[in-house]
Amino acid sequence: EPIQERFFRPHFLQAPGDLTVQEGKLCRMDCKASVSGLPTPDLSWQLNGRPIRPDSSHKMLVRENGVHSLIIEPVTSRDAGIYTCIASNRAGENSFSLELTVAAKEVQKAPVFIEKLQNTGVTEGFPVRLECRISGEPSPQIFWKKENESLTYNTDRVSMHQDNYGYICLLIQGATKEDAGWYTVSAKNEAGIVSCTARLDVYTQWQQPPQQTKPKKVRPSASRYAALCDQGLDIKAAFQPEANPVHLTMQPGLVESDDL
Predict the structure, then answer these.
(1) Cα end-to-end span (Å), the chain
(2) What CATH number does domain 107-201 carry, 2.30.30.240, 2.60.40.10, 2.40.50.140, 3.30.479.10?
(3) How confident is the model at residue 106 (pLDDT cuts 50, 70, 90)?
(4) Domain residues of the chain, as ranges?
(5) Rounded to 5 degrees, what angle do the CA atoms 163, 167, 171 make?
(6) Is residue 235 within a helix (H) or strand (E), and if so which, with residue range?
(7) Fewest CB within 10 A of the end CB: N or C in the chain?
(8) What percent of the chain has a predicted confidence (pLDDT) above 90?
(9) Which residues form the Ig-like domain (predicted)?
């Protein structure tokens, strides 16, 4: 008697769950179907009920171990939706579904300084802050260095701070002569890196920080006497009677000018 061939409906040994993939990245869906008899099932994929055809960004692969893969690269917003994988043979079919969510592409901006470090002077024993402000997407990592030595951890006296608005601060409590030198702050993210350097000077108690002298402004005045006084001239001493310089002596017969 002829042997009757038995067929069994396929079932899945492995199936993925819902996925979230960032736009522009690669998405891979792996599954494995098995049957106890022949024939080996055929697999097909659908997106929102419509068949998926292989193209430049959608590929369907089968490995020797029976794992079927749908690979999408690059993922776009049009790829979001409900995916259904159907395994079928002569005995019947089976299927599973999952939802693919496509996240918006992450905006990346290299770090930039909104406010740079400034050269700073402080009297020995007093606190000092080295401050700057940085922007970047995603939020950059911050690194501090003094000369060529990295500052990697906080101490009771020297601490590094950062807030959610991009403000960066190195705080030194009770500055010493050893704290003087060049400080560098660097900001790094996936889009780039930027650095800024400034000098810290520490003065002893008897020293005074150098001050920039600004030229004294002379306010206009109707009185020439007042204007000359504003310029620092000792007018009274210059016109003492005992000085009696020749060019200031009034000569008889000369008419006094209103300007004088």
Answers:
(1) 145
(2) 2.60.40.10
(3) confident
(4) 10-101, 107-201
(5) 90
(6) helix 235-238
(7) N
(8) 59
(9) 10-101, 111-201
Tokens of 125: 């024993």
| 255, two tokens | 């008419």
Condensed to tens digits (0 to 9), the pLDDT of residues 43-71 reads 999 999 999 999 999 999 988 888 999 99
Give the integer Cα–Cα distance in Å for 93 and 130: 69
Q: Confidence class of residue 84 from pLDDT cuts 50, 70 and 90?
A: very high
User: Do 107-201 and 10-101 fall under one CATH topology?
Assistant: yes
Which option is the CATH number for 10-101: 3.30.300.30, 2.60.40.10, 3.20.110.20, 3.30.43.10?
2.60.40.10
Dist CA 151 CA 184 (whole Å): 10
Q: What is the DSSP letter of 226?
A: H
Using CB atoms within 10 Å of the CB of residue 2, give its burial: 0 to 12 exposed, 13 to 18 middle, 19+ buried: exposed
- Asked if the model's pLDDT at residue 143 lies above 50, the reply is yes
CA gap 89, 44 in Å, rounded: 12
- Beta-bridged to residue 33, according to DSSP, are 12
Query: What is the sign of the dihedral through the CA atoms of 163, 201, 198 and 188?
Result: negative
The conformation of residue 232, written as its DSSP 8-state character, comes to T
